Every structure is written in structure tokens, then in C-alpha cells.
Amino acid sequence: MRTVTALLITAGVLAACTGTPAPGQTSERAVDRLRVEVLEVLRHDPEAFTQGLELHGDTLFEGTGLVGESSVRAGPLGAAPPVRVDLPPPLFGEGITVVGSRLWQLTWKGEVAVERDRDTLAELRRVEYSGEGWGLCHQPERGRLVMSDGSAELTFRDPRTFAETGSVRVAAGGQPVTELNELECVGDTVYANVWRSDRILRIDPGSGEVTAEIDASGLLDPAERAEADVLNGIAAVAGTDQLLLTGKLWPKMFRVRLVASG
């Protein structure tokens, strides 16, 4: 896909508010306004067109895109990844997620998901799906994958077979939110980059409701920004309220937490 960004963002720092419904109306949750507070700046390969980011234990997994340059990489956080497997043309790599001893990798318009061995990143099989693939994350407590395709819809899939099991439409204030990109599942919450923006949304995947809008602007200085593409890449740091954030062709990755805006 089109945008790179991998930042560390804190998950679930603020509880969502619930508004009081007017007579005859249903209750609608207020949207929290948050921003990122940078805790640490880490290295990131400025040649990586980041499409997916996930921290599993001490290993950072990153999926990259562009035809002929797509890959999956794995290694210690903040270091050059020692393991890398390229995705052959004409496939364009997209989101990734770890499921036990396996890793799933989406393709943009190839309509196939690649299942890989988590440790070696070797390809095990390919599973077909319909439409585009953008972002992907795993909700182990729910026993499902959550996938985006650039629309306002999130699709749920079986983590073993990749078969579709359901979907939900994402909306804020009753209005659909499109161009949902790279995803990160944190418990019952899904974080989503919004393509071509510095916004990240916190989503309740049960209702599709946006519960927070996060301002992730200003992470790169103007000179860095001129050489980089969009924000894309969210990885939760387990056991903390922190996230890792980065973007396509970004020279840096950021460990952040979420705080109230203003």
C-alpha cells in the first residue's frame, strides 16, 4: 500500500465517555481527542515502505510493500533485522500479524494471504481472498483476525483458515470512516492508521464505533518529512500503555504513549 509509519502508541490510556441521549435517540459515545507523547526515538530503515508492524515478545516484525521491494523482516527492536524474506513480484506486500507459531501477510491487489513460519519467515501456503488487503491484526481472546481493505469496513477472519467470519462498518458520529489502513489489535480495541493522514483511530470492533481520534503529527522534522511517505505502522508494547509508531520510508520509529489533547 501507499503509506509508511511505525510508531509506538499507548493502548487504552483513557476511558471513553458516554453522552446522554436526547429523547427518542440512541446513546452515542463521545470521541476522545488524544495526541502522542514521544518517549523514545528508535532507528528505522528509511528504505522500508512500511505496511505492517508488530512487536511479539522481543522481536519486531515488519512487512513492507512496493512491487519488487516487498518483504517481511524480523529482529530485535531498534536493531537491523537479521531475518528477511522477500515477496516475489508481482505481489505487493501489505499488513502482517503473528498467530502463534505462524505469521500472516496480506497482499494489496494480489488477493492472496501468505502464511509463514514465524521464526524463519518461510512461506508455508497461500490462501485466496476477494478484494484488496491493507491492514491485519489478531485478537486471540476473540479467536479472530481483523482485516482492513481501504474502505470503512473491517472484516473478521478465522486465524487458521483465513475464512471470512463477519464484518463491521466503522463510523464516527454516525458517518463512515474510510481509508482504514494498518491495524493493531490491543485487547478488545483496534487501532487504525487513516491513510494519507497523521490520524490514528481507536475503534470498538464490536460496534464499529470510533472511540478516540489520535493526533500523531509532528513526529518527523520538515526535512525528514520531505523525504518520507505517510504514517503507517502501529505496534503495541505488551504489558505497557505504549505503542511503537513509524511510517513508509521513515528514518525513525517512535515509542509513544497517548495523552489527552490540549
From TrEMBL:
Pfam families: Glu_cyclase_2. The keyword Signal applies. PROSITE patterns: PROKAR_LIPOPROTEIN. It comes from the Bacteria. It comes from Amycolatopsis cihanbeyliensis. Residues 1-15 form the signal peptide. One of its GO terms (molecular function) is glutaminyl-peptide cyclotransferase activity. Keywords: Signal, Transferase. This is Glutamine cyclotransferase.
